[in-house]
Structures are given as structure tokens and as C-alpha cells.
Amino acid sequence: AQSVTQLGSHVSVSEGALVLLRCNYSSSVPPYLFWYVQYPNQGLQLLLKYTSAATLVKGINGFEAEFKKSETSFHLTKPSAHMSDAAEYFCAVKGSQGNLIFGKGTKLSVKP
Amino acid sequence: DAGVIQSPRHEVTEMGQEVTLRCKPISGHDYLFWYRQTMMRGLELLIYFNNNVPIDDSGMPEDRFSAKMPNASFSTLKIQPSEPRDSAVYFCASSLYAGTGSYGYTFGSGTRLTVV
Questions:
Q1: Predicted confidence band at B77 (pLDDT cuts at 50, 70, 90)?
Q2: Contact A98 B43 (CB under 8 A)
Q3: CB distance from A26 to chain B under 8 Å?
Q4: What pLDDT shows up at residue B100?
Q5: Contact A40/B at CB under 8 A
Q6: Residue-level pLDDT at B98
Q7: Phi then psi dihedrals of residue B59, to 5 deg
Q8: How many other C-beta atoms are found inside a 10 Å radius of the C-beta of residue A1?
Q9: What residues contact residue A98 under an 8 Å CB cut-off, 6+ apart?
Q10: Of A9, A46, A57, A99, which to mutate for an interface test with B (greatest number of B Cβ within 10 Å)?
């Protein structure tokens, strides 16, 4: 069965600093992996997705994620944090039934 | 496309009352999902449909909850009777056929339910 684990329920960075949000997956088949972002009082929006075409995936708002099979990881990064990046981020893997299996989320705070 | 449309955006109701949440998925999407989000439990999958047929309702908390999808463009989630512990944000999401595909979900803006 597929699953994802997000390390760290809260991450705090200073504006301009590197953002690193960790996600590890478990899957018996080549996975499809996703990152979603949820801004306060809004639904989840797709940031990026991995579909096996390229291991480094670029998404919206300057975010990117690298698929590392040897580490079963799909960490989300952004070189320089902006105040507007403050949100909750969810990693997800596509399940065998076609549904997405979400992690518990990581809240990102950005300090001025 | 206007995206996934949920109504109402906010609902405040008294304990014991019936509550109906509504969702219009994106036209052409084969899957529809209902999620509940709370501070304590995070994002929980309640039920999902494929081509209007319920596939997995194991996340529905109890018999007070029911969901229907009478056609490809409309779904409801009903709680009867409602209880204060049902207070949460309920999200609807839709997706194209998945299978071995890489499609993600499109989420609605959610319905914030408060049961007093």
C-alpha cells in the first residue's frame, strides 16, 4: 500500500532563506507524487507533480521537488522564502485505487 | 471552467439539525472526493465516487453521514442529525480518470461547518 510521511509539522524560516519541506513515500509500484499548498481559509492547490518524466520537477511560485528513488524521498524546496509562502503544504502519493493519499501536512511560517 | 464549486461557503446550525453540503465537480472529471479537515485530525478522506458510483466509504465516520452523486455534475454530503464534533471544513475535489495516470485533484474552496 502507498503512503507518505511528512517530517515536521511546523517549519519556520526567515524571509530570503531556503525552504526545505520533507516528504518520504512508500510505494510498491513506481509512484506518482504531488505537493499541494493550502493558504488560510482556502482549498488545496496543486504546486507540482512527479510523473516519472524527470526527477527534478518545477512547480508554481518558484518551488521545485526532486524525486530520489534511492532515498524514497520527494522533498520540496524553494531557494528564497517570501512572506507570501506562509501556508500549509501537503505531500501526496497516488493510491492503487486512483485516490490520493495525503500526508499530515507541514505548516510553513516565514519570519520577516 | 469555474473549477469545483461548493456551497454553502459557511454553515452554522444547531445540534440535531440536518445539514446538506453540495458540490459541483469540473465537467468531464470521473472522480469525486469528499474530505473533512480539522485541526486535530488533519485531512480525512470520507468517501469517493468513480463515474457516480461510491467506491470507498470507509472514511465516513458513522451512519449519520451519507453522500450521494445522482449525476456527473452534482454531489451532496448530508449529516443527520448534526453534532458539535462534526464542526470542520468539508472539501470536495474532482479528478480525471486516474488508473495509472498522473492526474491530481482540483479542490473546491470548502464549506466551513459549525454546529452549536
A1: very high
A2: no
A3: no
A4: 47
A5: no
A6: 57
A7: -85, -5
A8: 9
A9: B31, B50, B95, B97, B98, B99
A10: A99
